[in-house]
## 1
Amino acid sequence: MRGVAMHGMIIRSIQCFLEDTYGRPVWEDIAKGAGLDPEAFEPMMPNRETRTDEVLRAASRRLDKPRDTLLEDLGTYLVAHPAMQVVRRLLRFCGPDFHDFLYSLEELPERARLAVPDLELPVLDLREHDSESYTLTVTHDVPGFGHVMVGMLRAMADDYGALVLLDHIGRDAASEVVSIRLAEPAFSAGRRFDLRLKAG
């Protein structure tokens, strides 16, 4: 069920991203283009893994955007959109600045499972080459998740106020590699982050 849960989570995230960004009618068009019933679709049912690709292909056609760009936009949405504050908070608890955040990435899947026990995130492996240059290897069963990580990292850099250069530099059958260059850790003030959850 792990692969099913992973793909169900991704499809559900794509649905929320498309609805919140482009509107419900656009999601309905995309769902139909992927052979799904937008009213009866249950993302956590045991759908075949190609269902994720079908949704992404339909979205790429409908929006006239490359798949990789859509996945990066999805990663940014998961951090920056007001509806996704839970994800932002989980990531911000990884460290007080972007440098510490990077070094906490490998622990992120375990932290996420504490909050959502059934959540399966990719395995993340960070390698430091010097004080500014890193590579992040993303191992998973969802093709393209490295591009989602590029979008998330870009949004988190903005959140921390860091100037970061990111590049998706390749993939093999199981992994993707993201190049990270931390040009300026304190480039701007960043977004305010309050440790306390607001009531209501």
## 2
Amino acid sequence: MDPNKERKETTGHLVPHESRRMRFRMARDDMRQDRQQQQVLSFLSSLQANFSSLVRLIESRLKYDKTKEAAFERLYQEMDELKQDQELNQLRPLYIDLILLIDRMNNIYKEKVSSGSASPEITSLLESLSHELIEILYRRGVELIVCPSPRFDPKIQQVIRVIPTSNPQEDNLVVEVVRHGFKYKDVLLRPEEVVIKKYKP
């Protein structure tokens, strides 16, 4: 039989042989599409797994960086504190000597004023030198202690004399500052020496 005659009948419909070929082609195309879809799905699944792995890696890295940063911060802080402690240990004797010099000048100033023998030039000079020394210390982190309350504070003050009082409201009241106290940042160099009243019924 002639193959060309097999292709079409007079009605124009496909002959059974051609129909089988068409079905085979369609099935093959469907299989190809299924394979392509499976490949795409497999690729997407692999991509998602890689992305999840990357996210976990980034999170782990960020956590590691934060831990490392915190560790470095602690290290820098400890080094800074150690440096400050070392500076204070080296400079404490000098600071104490300057504080004692200020005390000496203040005592001379008080003696001269109370005795009435001080000339205005000398008292002005002593006062000026005392203020300059306090300013020099301040620039190096040493400050005068300023008590915020008129009541005795054992953390920053030391009692050198007690005056009895019959008034309970005057108990622990500071009536006189004999010597100023000084601190270096948060470290007490010398407490403020005070006279307080103590209630005695």
